[in-house]
């Protein structure tokens, strides 16, 4: 890497966890992306890309939402699709000590691109690993497997209180990815973890597939 013998550096995960002798076997797995930095909190000078691999045919994602929601007999499926997206924000803001802010915006300005639905919150954000897991079809927020890092890490199913308050409104739903592809044909997730200076972005697109 062209590092001088007297220069200090650290190797970290994309979540800015420093790789040490003690945690090497835990954090360094096949396919993991690592940063070589001068310090753990070093600013990145340019955007980096991390490859996400998953096997399902694109129809599994793109058409599953259409199938799942149109199968809701006698009901208008759009509110259920929006509820899935809002549920993600409810979960992300569940630990906020300040005001929880969740906005739903319908964007129709052609100068900004194609029409879109934007759900914006001030929650704790997702790491690159959590965004990776979000991209995996039918990976439940209730799943716990070893060092698996869910997009709802630390989630505990809440006590029976109004579901609009407890981030459990999509428990009987079909998931955010199906909701996205019911509403449109692409998804852009932009997230900054609360304890990190890095902004992570994930794009899933029928056109790209």
UniProtKB/TrEMBL annotation:
Protein name (record): Structural maintenance of chromosomes flexible hinge domain-containing protein 1
PANTHER family in the record: STRUCTURAL MAINTENANCE OF CHROMOSOMES FLEXIBLE HINGE DOMAIN-CONTAINING PROTEIN 1
GO biological process: double-strand break repair
Natural source organism: Tauraco erythrolophus (Red-crested turaco)
SUPFAM superfamilies: ATPase domain of HSP90 chaperone/DNA topoisomerase II/histidine kinase
């Amino acid at each position: 890497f062209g590092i001088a013998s007297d220069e200090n550096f650290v190797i970290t995960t994309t979540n800015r966890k420093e790789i040490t002798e003690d945690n090497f076997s835990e954090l360094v797995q096949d396919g993991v992306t690592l940063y070589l930095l001068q310090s753990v909190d070093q600013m990145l000078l340019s955007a980096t890309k991390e490859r996400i691999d998953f096997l399902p045919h694109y129809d599994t994602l793109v058409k599953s939402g259409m199938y799942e929601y149109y199968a809701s007999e006698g009901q208008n499926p759009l509110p259920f699709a929006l509820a899935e997206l809002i549920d993600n924000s409810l979960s992300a803001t569940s630990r906020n000590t300040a005001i929880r802010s969740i906005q739903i915006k319908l964007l129709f300005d052609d100068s900004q691109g194609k029409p879109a639905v934007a759900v914006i919150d001030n929650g704790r954000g997702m790491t690159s690993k959590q965004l990776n897991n979000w991209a995996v079809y039918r990976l439940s927020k209730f799943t716990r497997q070893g060092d698996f890092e869910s997009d709802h890490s630390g989630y505990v199913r809440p006590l029976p209180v109004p579901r609009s308050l407890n981030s459990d409104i999509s428990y009987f739903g079909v998931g955010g990815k199906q909701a996205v592809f019911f509403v449109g044909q692409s998804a852009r997730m932009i997230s900054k973890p609360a304890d990190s200076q890095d902004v992570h972005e994930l794009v899933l697109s029928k056109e790209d597939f």
